[in-house]
Amino acid sequence: MTDEKNIYEYPGDQVDVQWDKRLCIHVGECGRAVGDLFVGGRNPWCQPDMAASAQDVAEVCERCPTGALTYIRKDNGPTEVAASTNTVLVANDGPLYFSGDLNIDGAAEDMGGVRYRAALCRCGASKQKPFCDNSHRDIPFHDQGAVGASGDAEVDAGGTLEVKRAPNGPLLVNGSFTILTGSGRQAWQGTRAALCRCGASKNKPFCDGAHKAAGFTAE
């Protein structure tokens, strides 16, 4: 049911599901989905054949905002594609949720789910950097996800969004994307930004150089 790389596989007749526990921060989109695809306490907790269709399985897996859940269809049905617009949601007291056509520096080759969905640390404490591991809850980290800047008025949607890590510094994001506030408001759009990942910036989600004074260290 599992391999040494922390990826659990749940086979079904029409579709297989994979769960990468390194990426999971237990948002609960799977467990709260209607139906018996995912049932907490059951062994195995994921049973693809309990869903009404392979498409239902795909839709529930794609709700996972971290990329921890992926699927492989065996019915020749459509597979996951990138959202038409790249977005970064600044979660209330939580991570940066990326969605779109993502190319994330620091992702292992077998982390296939983060091709389209990812939760990246912005509190500075994750032991799975650049990915969130819920350390923001233990610190605790507080930021409601407000965004003051508006960015560029006109930006073409789509295309690859590259996310690189400045050594001991911010996330360097390049490509067309929109930043959403914690309340869901479309706040900023542009093609280039340095986003805080040390947790100390006074201009969150943007970097203001505070990582230097904070002594932040990370690849």
From TrEMBL:
- List each copy of the Iron-binding zinc finger CDGSH type domain by range: 101-142, 183-217
Q: Which SMART domains does the record match to this protein? A: ZnF_CDGSH
The organism that produces this protein has a lineage beginning with: Bacteria, Pseudomonadati, Myxococcota, Polyangia, Nannocystales
Q: Has UniProt tagged this entry with the keyword Cytoplasm?
A: no
Source organism per entry reads Plesiocystis pacifica SIR-1
> Keywords in UniProt for this one?
2Fe-2S, Iron, Iron-sulfur, Metal-binding
One GO CC term, this protein: cytoplasm
User: Which Pfam families does UniProt cross-reference here?
Assistant: Fer4_19, zf-CDGSH
Q: Name one GO molecular function term.
A: metal ion binding
**Full protein name:** Iron-binding zinc finger CDGSH type domain-containing protein
Coiled-coil region(s): none
